[in-house]
Design goal:
The longest helix is centred in the N-terminal third of the chain and has 17 residues. The strands form 3 sheets. The chain has a 5-stranded mixed sheet, with helices on both faces. By secondary structure, the chain is α/β, with parallel strands linked by helices.
């Protein structure tokens, strides 16, 4: 869920509500009262796992501070979280009520949890720690899609048939948090653009969202209202708006164009801090057209030509052919394919110099491939807005696959 929500009244299986307890384990009000009433906290037990809650003793009486004991209890919790990666821990503002700690003080005890994927902290703690990677509990979607009262496979079948029947909209087509007031809309609400991006990059969730969105586009029913009914037709518009803002010119925009006359959900736009006029003027990704003579054009930017010398263009087309990416260490395996691409660009024979260039660029021990990637960047930078240029060039983390991330529906091969 990114940051721990301010209000929690339900949990999924294996989610744990982490709260601050007094030294006697008297769980009366605030988070401790919620833990006792809803999540299995045991009266008189001041520390440890209790049902779907975990108690950390922080309150030792009025004006009594025992920082060393609090730190030891938090460290014990962190060890427990590391040993139970199958659980996801939602840490509340532990100690920031009757115990008298400020968020900035208590956050320091939890600093190590920033490195754990199965712990979320309150936003006030994360801010106090200077940011850090936010852990999103995307497993809540996987669990619902695989074992809920209506699974993803059932949802996909219904969309393919052109008629939604089950109750799965919240966790299959998620929306930005705050558009509804029901438990499901809050629990499965996407907290931010960053969480939406993480959702889309998730290997299973991103794949499923694109799959069912494509099914929506190609089903025989021409009316979103007839397919989805009310109010789900509006929820899907909200979902498509959210992910279109995360991934412009993607399949989500196609749904908005086909079923909603290109209109986005205004409430989603506002919650993400945009406004309609800004979006109208927002620079969009251009289609990348490779003509029959292998000229590279930015079709939607007045057909501007991306000028690359032949060996650089051959490298670029090689990576364009492999959306899954290519690790530089594996380039020797692509030497023959690169040679064939170059022959298409320059069909009148191969000189010794060209053969050596191909040999060099596919040798991961040399710097030639990095130099060619730099030339690709230099060619695109004058033609593409700076916020979008990374979509067109060959990028990737050191040691991992390098790729061109431009959505392939924007790549046109004549």
């Amino acid at each position: 869920m990114g940051y721990t929500p301010d209000y929690i009244d339900r949990l999924l299986p294996k989610q744990i509500f982490v709260f601050g307890s007094n030294a006697l384990g008297y769980h009366t009000g605030g988070a401790s009262g919620t833990a006792r009433k809803k999540f299995g906290a045991v009266w008189g037990q001041a520390e440890g796992l209790q049902g779907q809650s975990y108690a950390i003793p922080v309150d030792f009486g009025k004006d009594v501070r025992k920082d060393n004991e609090v730190k030891a209890a938090v460290d014990k919790f962190i060890t427990f979280a590391k040993e139970h990666s199958e659980l996801f821990f939602l840490v509340t503002r532990v100690g920031c009520g009757l115990a008298g700690y400020h968020d900035e003080e208590m956050a320091q005890f939890f600093k190590e949890t920033l490195e754990l994927k199965n712990v979320s902290l309150p936003k006030s703690f994360v801010d106090a720690l200077g940011g850090g990677e936010v852990n999103y509990d995307l497993d809540r979607f996987i669990k619902a899609q695989d074992s809920g009262w209506a699974t993803y496979s059932e949802a996909l079948s219904e969309i393919k048939e052109g008629h939604k029947r089950g109750h799965w909209i919240w966790y299959v087509f998620p929306q930005i948090k705050g558009l509804g007031h029901s438990y499901n809309s809050e629990f499965y609400g996407i907290s931010s653009k960053d969480e939406a991006k993480a959702y889309l990059e998730h290997p299973e969730l991103g794949k499923r969202l694109r799959e069912i969105t494509k099914a929506l586009l190609v089903c025989n029913n021409p009316s979103a209202f007839n397919i989805l009914g009310f109010p789900d037709v509006l929820k899907v518009q909200s979902c498509m708006t959210l992910f279109d803002l995360v991934s412009p010119n993607d399949i989500f925009n196609e749904v908005l164009e086909k079923y909603y006359e290109g209109k986005r959900c205004e409430k989603t736009i506002q919650r993400l801090g945009f406004h309609e006029e800004k979006l109208k003027n927002q620079i969009k990704l251009s289609k990348l057209t490779i003509t029959k003579d292998y000229t590279i054009l930015l079709t939607d930017y007045d057909n501007k030509e991306v000028k690359l010398e032949p060996i650089v263009k051959a490298v670029y087309l090689l990576f364009l052919n492999h959306p899954e990416g290519i690790a530089f260490k594996c380039l020797p395996d692509f030497r023959e394919e690169l040679t064939q691409i170059y022959v298409k660009l320059k069909p009148f024979g191969m000189s010794e110099r060209v053969l050596q260039s191909i040999e060099d660029v596919t040798n991961p021990l040399l710097n030639s491939i990095n130099e060619k990637c730099s030339r690709v960047r230099a060619a695109f930078q004058p033609l593409v807005d700076g916020s979008l240029v990374d979509q067109y060039i060959i990028i990737g983390k050191s040691g991992e696959e390098k790729k061109i991330t431009l959505p392939r529906n924007l790549v046109v091969w004549e």
